[in-house]
Design a protein that fits this description.
The chain is an alpha/beta fold. The protein contains 14 helices and 13 strands. The chain has helices at about 10-25, 30-40, 45-60, 60-75, 110-120, 130-135, 145-155, 180-185, 220-235, 260-270, 280-295, 315-330, 350-355, 365-375; strands spanning about 85, 95, 105, 125, 165-170, 175-180, 200-205, 210-215, 240-245, 250, 300-305, 330-335, 360-365.
Length: about 375
């Protein structure tokens, strides 16, 4: 945490700080930036107050706090060593002093840098660390060391369904409806006279999330990371069920309950006899609907299908089972790693057959896309 220090703050520097946060991936909403400005107007202008005002109004999770700390130190820390680092179009890194026109030269001509800075619309991309760069990298292009870093970062992701109205009721002081049982029970303390009327209102609980992960050969470059994501979701304590889809359907929730990611994946691999084999999405969904989904697991749940849509079965069968699933599920999210590819079109027979029954069709190739999935699942669906 920064130590208190006298600091000159103007609106342009604050706006630049907000813009830097957004460019590094921190989702700062307009309302949050307004609240941040209002907080600064009420506080003494020192680094300590600025830090806590920003952290309280601009961050919403542990991962966002880490990113906020990095940007704050580089933006407000001052001096050439803590200045922002920019990567120019030619991928040459230059250090820019905070609040100074001087630029440290690193294999770049100083006149060229001055011209770049003077440009009204400089084409810079912010890069703070290898971790932040890794968040947007495609899983298919990672080396072994980067995959280990991704595994560690996946542990911070949470997959919690949006809230729904529960049958259970909770005590409230105002509103709601009369709670006869609690009213009578409390009246026993006053000789049977109900001096206080108890009230209750419906409680809310998170919806169940069901993950159906494609582990066929066409998903080989992504299936391991996506299964690690499923493991992080299961051990987080949220109500999450996980199945593997190949030539058959395999339930993996029990195998993924151990907290060791490597052990969990080893147990999952032992339980799935057709890992990296073919794909029969229609037959697998039929088994899920018949044995689990329609019977209750998918009712009111958020179903997330992690697949590229390549299917060896009949498209009509897949469409029929997707229609059955859509009738009972609250929401169906299809996560396709190939969707981020340039020029991608959902022309695969299985993908084309399933899309009419999908509520959200999103990418699934990077940490950022999985983070987007987590936020999407936690958001209430507006039809």
């Amino acid at each position: 945490m920064p130590s208190p220090a006298d600091t000159n703050v103007d609106e342009r520097r604050v706006a630049g700080f907000i813009d830097a946060l957004r460019q590094t991936g921190l989702p700062v909403a307009v309302g949050g930036s307004i609240l941040h400005a209002q907080a600064l107007a009420l506080l003494d202008v020192d680094l300590d107050s600025m830090y806590w005002a920003g952290r309280i109004t601009l961050t919403h999770s542990q991962a966002e706090i880490k990113l906020f700390d990095t940007v704050f130190a580089q933006w407000w820390g001052g001096g050439s060593e803590s200045g922002m680092e920019f990567v120019v179009e030619q991928q040459q890194i230059i250090g820019v002093d905070d609040g100074d026109d001087a630029v440290d030269e690193q294999d770049v001509d100083s006149n060229d840098i001055a011209d770049e800075i003077a440009d009204e619309d400089p084409q810079w991309s912010l890069r703070f660390s290898a971790v932040e760069t890794l968040r947007s990298r495609d899983f298919a292009g990672l080396n072994s060391e980067e995959r280990e870093q991704v595994t560690a970062l996946l542990a911070d992701l949470r997959l919690i369904g949006s809230l729904r109205r529960s049958r259970r009721r909770r005590p409230v002081h105002h509103g709601g409806r009369p709670d006869l049982r609690r009213t009578v029970r409390s009246s026993m303390r006053t000789g049977g006279e109900p001096l206080r009327r108890a009230m209750s209102a419906p409680s809310r609980r998170a919806r169940r999330v069901v993950l159906l992960a494609d582990i066929s050969g066409s998903m080989e470059l992504y299936s391991r990371v996506l299964m690690q994501f499923a493991h992080a979701a299961v051990v987080s304590g949220a109500e999450v069920e996980t199945f593997a889809i190949g030539t058959r359907l395999t339930r993996l929730t029990r195998e993924l309950t151990t907290h060791d990611p490597d052990q969990a994946l080893a147990r999952a691999a032992e339980a799935v006899p057709d890992w990296s084999g073919g794909t029969r999405l229609g037959a697998a969904l039929q088994k899920f609907n018949d044995e689990w989904g329609v019977r209750g697991m998918a009712r009111g749940a958020i179903v997330v299908i992690l697949s590229d849509g390549w299917d060896r079965g009949e498209p009509a069968e897949l469409a029929t089972q997707m229609q059955r699933l859509a009738r009972v599920a609250h929401r169906i999210v299809w996560v396709n790693p190939l969707r981020a590819s340039d020029g991608y079109e959902p022309t695969a027979r299985g993908m084309a057959a399933a899309l009419p029954f999908v509520d959200d069709f999103i990418d699934g190739h990077s940490l950022d896309s999985l983070d987007h999935l987590s936020r999407l699942v936690a958001t209430e669906l507006i039809r």
